[in-house]
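Aim 2 progress update. The chain analyzed this quarter is reproduced below.
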Amino acid sequence: MSAAEIIRRQRCGQPLTLPEIQAFVRGLVDGSWSDAQVGAMAMAILWRGLDTAGTVALTEAMTRSGAVLDWSREGFSGPVLDKHSTGGVGDKVSLVLAPLLAACGAVVPMISGRGLGHTGGTLDKLEALPGYTVDLPRERLASVLHDAGCVIVGASAAVAPADRRLYAIRDVTATVESLPLIVASILSKKCAAGLQALVMDVKCGNGAFCPTTAEALPLAQALVDVASGAGLPTVALVTDMAAVLGRSAGNALEVAEAMTLLRGDGAADPAMARLRTLCLRLAAEALWLGRLVPDLDAGLDLATRRLDDGHAAERFARMVAGLGGPPDVWRDAGLPRAPVVVPVPAARDGWVGTPDARALGLAVVALGGGRERPGVAVDARVGLAAVRAPGESVRAGEPLAWVHAADEGAARLAVATVASALPVQDIAPPAAALVQAVVGRP
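Predicted structure tokens:
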């Protein structure tokens, strides 16, 4: 069947057959579908949607459009686990979770991405460590996995190439928001990574792509349903992203904060405790899915012990050294520092209200810590530190946050943005639950 006929059937809401979906994916890879045809198909899917079976078929076809890793051939004994987040401001969970799961007996080949919009990217953060390499040949990847139990790297061009082309076209045809295409994009890369179980962190709040729990739940449910249909056991947590996660936003600053947590420090700080709680909860879910523990309580206990006894920190150091970073990251991480560091003073006494987390993320982008257009290098030094959490009391003149900038002009602009995004009010706002919902676990 011709590309035009498949597009017409999708446009008219007629269910596509498996061969039709496979023909679309083949056309993505071999170029037999033009960019105009791919864009039209993406718009038809956005407009008419795909049912679960159709999205499973699309995910599986995109998974098989390139290399599919099989870690059983590499001699690994532990379950192959991973986590994926839909993105937020200050979300450095992956930096803690990958070595934590490895310390608990899992194998974690975590394929991550770069910053998107106002949210930071895990690869950009790790590249703040001098020498850290995110693009590795398969042999070296397996070697580091054997030694550290975890790697955090970028997707090879050979992994899910259909998604690479489709995403680029979606980005310029106003079809990024299509739920089936979002799900297939995320899961095709995860399935191609040879996983045995996956835990999803679907963010909601003004710092996330889904502003409300009601909007995040359909995405969480679709991810679980399609992953299960594709043979990948998955649990999705809908978690709060109405404030910076932890105290920092910005690449080097977030690496330093994640390392603080891995060292066992910061638990007395409420904002750091919130970050720690999320890392432990996601770890427990993944360990249960991977059958390393009998239940969630046992998973929390194991993850807590491995974080507190230094085993997770040891795995992190091995991973960093194996991927070309500092040979002893705990002695000297070599993280770059911004030349200008200035406070954002509170204008009055009161309590910090609900922040505009999206504005805070965009402030980091404007400082140079993210990309305003593809291909631009990021400045790992810049960002926000010691960000006050909602509900904390503050006196006039006390810092609401500290801006780390490349120059005085950029710092002044960021101070004004951050002051506006961190309101101070007469009463403390109600605390938001960290985990809003769980999908996929009895």
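The CA atoms of residues 163 and 185 lie 6 Å apart. The radius of gyration is 22 Å. These observations will guide the mutagenesis experiments scheduled for the next reporting period.
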